[in-house]
Task: structure prediction
Amino acid sequence: MKLDVVQKREQKTGWILLLPALIVMLVVYAYPILRAFWLSVFTQNLGTELEQVFSGLSNYGRMFSDGRFWQSLWNTTVFTTSSVLLELILGIGVALVLNQAFRGRGIVRTITLIPWALPTAVMGVAWAWIFNDQYGVVNDILRRLGLIETGISWLGNPTLAMIAVILADVWKTTPFIALLLLAGLQSISGDLYEAHSLDGATPIQSFWKITVPLLMPQIIVSVLFRFAQAFAIFDLIQVMTGGGPGGATETVSIYIYSTVMRYLDFGYGSALIVVTFLILVIAVAIASLLLTRARANAAGVR
Amino acid sequence: MNRQPKSKLHTLHLKLKKWYQWMLLFVLSLGIILTTWIVMAQQPVVLNTLILAPDVKDLRAGMFQDFEKENPGIRINVIEGPNAANLVEDLYSSAFLLGESPYDLVLLDIVWTPKFAAAGWLSDLQDRVSSEELNAFTVQDIEAGRYRDGLYRIPIRSDVGILYYREDLLKAAGLKPPETFQDLIQASQTLQKQNKVDWGYVWQGRQYEGLSAMFVEVLEGYGGFWVNPDTQEVGLDRPEAIQAVEFLRSTIQKGISPPGVTTYIEEDTRRLFQGGQVAFLRNWPYVLPLANEAGSQLRNRVAIKPMVHAPGETSGACLGGWGFGIASNSTHQEEAWKALQYFMSREAQKRFILGAGYVPSRKELFTDPDVVAKYPYFPELLQIAEKAVLRPAIPQYAQASDILQRYLSAALANRTSPEQAMQAAASETRTLLSR
Amino acid sequence: MAIAQSRSQSKSGVNWRAIWLPIAVALVVIFFLAPVLWQVLTSVKVNEDISAVPTVYFPTRYTFEHYASLFTRRPFGLYILNSAFVSITSTLFCLAFGAPAAYVLARLRLVGKEIILAIVLIVTLFPTVLLFLGLLEIVQATNLANNFLALIIPYTAINLPLTILVMRSFFQQLPKDLEDSARVDGYNTFQLLWKILLPMTLPALVTTGILTFIAAWNEFIFALTFISQETMKTIPVATAQLSGATVFEIPYGPIAAATILGTLPLVLLVLFFQRKIVQGLTAGAVKG
Result:
């Protein structure tokens, strides 16, 4: 009997302590998404003089034939896949390096943190300067190496602009993956490697047979995080290229932002938000399934 | 020692002293409040406006300063914006979307007005201006500032697209300045064959707003149209529009225009032309004074004329320019209107044009003797300006322009055929406008 | 790993590690540091050096004019204060709301705890760009435009998931007997949290606070959308909107100076709290 009372009080206390955080998160996260679902079945734009007019699924229908939407989806896919892949490879490399014991390791780890800590938007401006066609460092280095004669217009060429943007993003987020993987590496016991090399395995074989499988949970988690972040990348591209040239680097989030803030097409923008949200949810669900399976595998290896 | 109350007189004296102190305090406070109030009332009314970075100097030192001198109670606070028109548009849009009105005077590019007006961000000036006053400007410039019978923008400077040509080269080859698209192609080919120039015709072909501006001229030249703002009819998939696209493509295919023309903006084309390698250039009037500078190899060799057209059609000059409007949420409507009246007055605009060299909006300034003395090509420009063609004055202009740019670019880069491109563009534009 | 390496070394006779490790470390350092260093150099170069072709790497002359111009042409000091105010305030809110919530999810048995935990995890992955439209409407409706609250509340929400996850793992690491004995002594949950647990998790609070501060300082899209008044802008937005005086002039010097000034607080934080930051990041992410 007394236990019930105690439990009830515990429940009440628990909820009171939880409430502020829950309310803030609900207002900021749940409301906008629900609102987007609601608004997406209305038309609210300059044609309606910003009045809301019910229009059913017409916004979604419009999305089908919207060339720019599919283009942005494609750009987003290219950007996300390339970015995350590159970051994973580089991240593992950096993590392996940081896992070694050497003098000044602490300093190197600090240096590794710096790109992650700096504002993306501010560094985006810096990258635009680095890739500048006339005065940029990249062109200068290429010229000195004799690879090119005149400055390449990085941000004026569709493919090169995408490469530049991917590079800037990889620079910014490799630290995150590297540090996550480093934590994972440090939890792998050295005995496993000893035993493996005693069996005649080279370090490379150890890497693939031991490191990668055991690191799989961290890899999947970091890929998951990075996928969600890269899919919705906004700051970097907005500041570096604005989605240009000619929409070559326009990702879905940039298109959504333009649609709402420049074209004042709120109904259509909401529909775009809903579709992006659903795509993200599906992708994360798939990744979570992989994660559970990978965790099981890791347990098996141990 | 003086504990015992003194005489009655002393008590009274003490009482009075206290009362006196309170009175003093009261009067002092009143005085402070009053002074503050008077000082506050003397504060000048501040009109805020966001101006494109390159124009800040000219406006501040010119019209704004003059206006403030004549109106000591009003100050114009200029907030400097970025160099690009679309970025300034975004800044204005963000500010107005948030509901407040940090800006009282709104600097409007010619194509922004319908959007800002439809969103309810601008005050209707229709009743404040008489039609005589409006007649001082070109019809198209005023039209661009209208939205559904209201007037929202008063122009202060204009721009028109023109065709530049090498007068010296044409004369030497015995050619007349081209009137039709065919003439242009033939003249280009002749001069190129004679090795007088590397390229015949250079224009802006990159995927940006300038592409739309350039295209409306070719469209007009073939007798086509983009969007009719009154009927919302889309003319992009008509034969005339497709012919327009084919003309542009043919300049590249025939080798008259460099293949890189699909990446050029105004400055790229100007540099090529001023380097002497090109016979014909489509650009804005700012090139002329630069070409005639001391030291330029094109000095006195360049002439201008309206854009070429198809036989039987009219030539088109795309109208650009900037004007001012008043924010509907501004708390200083009257003061802002005073400023606007000043800006649109003959004297203010004359001083502005003389100082900065922009193309005028007031027709009389094109032929004003003082102005012509400094800019002798203005009378010619007036003839072109009066034939100017507007980009569609619809609220969704930005989206429509984006659609056109994308498909036109694809056609120019040979990724799709002109028919497919224009049909897709027309269909998307119709979907856009059907809301 | 090191043990295996030394074994393979003795086998082949070549000390691979001594060769590739310094190279790898150097590459890592150069890769991560170069862009930042480039901005530092650019910020003290004179304009002639900045626009010199071929590129002048080390300044021929040093100048602080770009830093000075930041404060004369734009209210850069204000920008820094704005960023600081918003970041600190949202961090405090985050800790105030997040720590108790984390405790509940760590220790108390609550109906629906799993669901809430799942929600927190999901929200961690949420891209903020999907939220700006709904929040814009709220800002318009509540007239919070150009009000720092329009930033503080979303920033708090954005950082709450990470705060909760990190603090939760720290709470779970605390010895349970402490709490049990406190309860026996008659403490209720509130007093327990306030008087005993929080002081013990101070390092964790510091860690989380730093992460939150960095995230809030760097936030862009909400700061771009909800603040339009020049004097209230935060660093990332203000830096991205720096412009030149003529059509063709982009102020690379002042932009570089703004980059350095605007990120200096963060770099200092990283320098001093590197270890804690790494701890926090890994605790928060791995728990997923």
About this structure: The CA atoms of residues 101 and 319 of chain B lie 29 Å apart. Chain B has 19 helices and twelve strands.
